[in-house]
Specification:
The complex is a heterodimer. By secondary structure, chain A is an all-alpha fold. Chain A has 14 helices and two strands, in the order ααααααααββαααααα. Chain A has one domain. Chain A has a two-stranded antiparallel sheet with strand order 1-2. The mean pLDDT of chain A is 85. Helices cover 41% and strands 14% of the residues of chain B. In chain B, the strands form three sheets. In chain B, strands 6-1-8 form a three-stranded mixed β-sheet. The model of chain B has no long low-confidence stretch (mean pLDDT 84). The chains are: A mainly alpha, B alpha+beta. At the A-B interface, α3, α12 and α14 of A face α1 of B.
């Protein structure tokens, strides 16, 4: 072990801890104990992060609007999620009289379960993946797609027009953005040649000098990363794509008729989906748990993974603090007329990159194609919108 | 180019985000219970009764004329007039309110009572933290709760209070001059009568 790198004991501390706990059990059930501990880790760490994120989000949004944000509960308002949790737990759980009780109850449960499943294949550190699946990415997208089911369950079972409208918007939006989301991750699979997330991370773990081999630092990777970011924002129903729950239009969208802790579960699920999307984006494009510069390996791998995820979360919050909500037709136009063609083009560019071989030529060619396409699509898109000066006609 | 506006917007929010930690001027929030801004002088809430001197009961300017009670649009004032008269601040015997209640749950802060009062006895307070868990008694202020010293009035409305004081002083001076003139006139009359009476009668001794 060189002095440059983090000691294995710290890097692998969670693995070592799991092994240590497991060795108290008979050999036959050790794998099960290991998995259970991993699950406990996931369902405690990510909701904990969620609690922190809610405070940071509210404070960050406040600062972006030149306000303080919550600062009353505990030091600097950091116990706000505790207060919110107590409030959510003690509130009455109202189920509408005409609602489909079973579906209404199942929807948040199914949603949370599906969202948690996404974390199973996420490599949060070196060797730290709960299930090292060969087709991990496929599993992730399958689980991501099944959240749409529970969203529609919630909207349909509530027997409320706002819920249903919200659910229909959500499903339309999630299906539309599912495609660019998948296509933009396909480019990574094309280059890495594997669907296994730990292997994708390992493929990016090398360094040239001090610079990492992350896919985001290639022309096709950057394009795919941006498209993935857009699609991920939309998949998680985050602003500016928060139409399914647009407060000013639909009360709360598909969870209008939920109160108390069921509402909190929807809220948790939304943030957990954000975390898993950020985790996948980190894994695919930002080298997962690898350090951003070679000499930064002194910090453990899981630290880097969570730092990157939190950077993503900050960008999510930043975007939410900046951009206004899209209209439904703008949302669909954007998905089908810009994001999708661009990801398709990126597939082609990635193939070109793959077969042009090493050298500077492929950098220039691929960048030129992508930049030209971006500019051209922007020009065409903006040109069709007739941005003439608006003429006002006043009553005489 | 596409996305230019988004970047511009993101920079703006980033500037706000970073700036709010650096410059205090960006954060215009007044964190109310701990931080308070001085209320503007013209602000008003509910009426109070002004008294002169140290004793609230003796110094009340109110003479229970009941004009405010009659003028009050939502009828939130209840006055009971005394049977006897007590000397007021300048020593003139006046009626006084044995009971003066204002129901601030009913009061609409219109200030009409202040406008109609001929004695500058009722003024508007700035106190707004009057919330109470007793919605009947707690919001019905009696004359003791309503009585506020002239010094307090100077504190909350300095300009207006100075004007009122000047006006009152003028009125009192005029009244004093008038009563003095009247007294002199009466004295002169008495003297004249005395003088008239003196002619036939022999001069009487000075005093009575």
């Amino acid at each position: 072990m060189s002095g440059m790198n983090v000691p294995a004991t710290i890097d692998q501390i969670f693995i070592l801890f799991t092994d240590w706990v497991a060795h108290f059990f008979p050999a036959a059930i050790r794998p099960i104990v290991g998995v259970v501990l991993g699950v406990i880790g996931i369902i405690s760490v990510f909701p904990g992060l969620f609690a922190l994120t809610t405070v940071f989000e509210r404070k960050g949004l406040g600062r972006m609007q030149n306000r303080y944000g919550p600062n009353r509960v505990g030091p600097f308002g950091f116990f706000q999620p505790v207060a919110d949790g107590i409030k959510a737990l003690t509130k009455e759980d109202v189920v509408p009289f005409r609602a489909d009780g079973v579906l209404h109850f199942l929807a948040p449960v199914v949603l949370l379960a599906a969202v948690f499943m996404g974390f199973a294949i996420l490599p949060v550190g070196r060797n730290m993946v709960l299930v090292d699946m060969d087709a991990g990415l496929l599993f992730f997208f399958a689980m991501g797609a099944s959240t749409e089911l529970s969203v529609f369950m919630a909207g349909w079972s509530s027997r409320n027009k706002y819920s249903l409208l919200g659910a229909m918007r959500a499903v339309a939006q999630m299906i539309s953005y599912e495609i660019p989301l998948l296509l933009s991750s396909v480019v990574v699979i094309m280059v890495a040649g594997t669907l296994s997330l730990p292997k994708i991370v390992e493929a990016q773990a090398g360094y040239t000098g001090i610079w990492p081999h992350w896919y985001v630092f290639t022309p096709w990777g950057l394009a795919a990363f941006l498209m993935f970011g857009i699609a991920a924002t939309s998949e998680t129903n985050r602003s500016p794509f928060d139409l399914p729950e647009g407060e000013s239009e639909l009360v709360a969208g598909y969870f209008t008729e939920y109160s108390g802790f069921k509402f909190a579960i929807f809220f948790i699920a939304e943030y957990l989906a954000m975390f898993s999307m950020s985790g996948i984006a980190t894994t695919l494009f930002l080298g997962g748990w690898s350090a951003p510069l070679s000499f930064l390996n002194v910090l453990p791998s899981w630290f880097w993974f969570f730092s990157k995820v939190m950077c993503f979360i900050f960008i999510f919050i930043w975007v939410r603090g900046t951009l206004p909500r899209l209209r439904q037709d703008q949302l669909m136009n954007f998905a089908w007329k810009f994001v999708l063609p661009f990801t398709l083009l990126d597939l082609f560019v990635t193939a070109l990159w793959r077969f042009m071989g090493e050298g500077w030529a492929r950098w220039i060619v691929c960048s030129a194609i992508l930049i030209a396409a971006y500019v051209a699509m922007g020009r065409v898109g903006m040109f069709r919108k007739n941005f003439a000066h608006r003429r006002y006609r006043y009553a005489e | 180019m596409l996305g230019e506006g988004i970047i511009k917007g993101m920079l703006e929010t980033a500037k706000n985000f970073a700036g709010s930690y650096v410059s205090k001027e960006r954060l215009t929030t007044v964190q109310y219970p701990e931080e308070r801004e001085a209320l503007p002088e013209a602000s008003r809430n509910f009426p109070i009764l002004i008294y002169d001197g140290p004793e609230w009961e003796a110094g009340l300017r109110c003479v229970a004329c009941q004009i405010c009670e009659k003028e009050c649009p939502p009828k939130c004032i209840l006055i009971e007039k005394s049977a006897d008269k007590k000397p007021d601040a300048v020593g003139k015997p006046q009626f006084y309110p044995t009971r003066f209640d204002i129901d601030i749950a009913v009061c609409m802060s219109c200030q009409i009572c202040v406008e109609v009062c001929p004695f500058e006895a009722i003024k508007m307070d700035k106190e707004f933290e009057l919330a109470t868990d007793d919605r009947f008694g707690g919001l019905l202020h009696d004359r003791h709760q309503l009585a506020k010293s002239n010094e307090y009035y100077h504190q909350i409305h300095p300009v207006e209070a100075a004007e009122v004081d000047a006006r009152l002083a003028e009125e009192r001076a005029a009244a004093a001059a008038k009563s003095k003139a009247a007294a002199e006139a009466a004295a002169a009359k008495a003297a004249a009568a005395k003088a008239g009476a003196e002619k036939p009668a022999p001069p009487a001794g000075g005093g009575a």
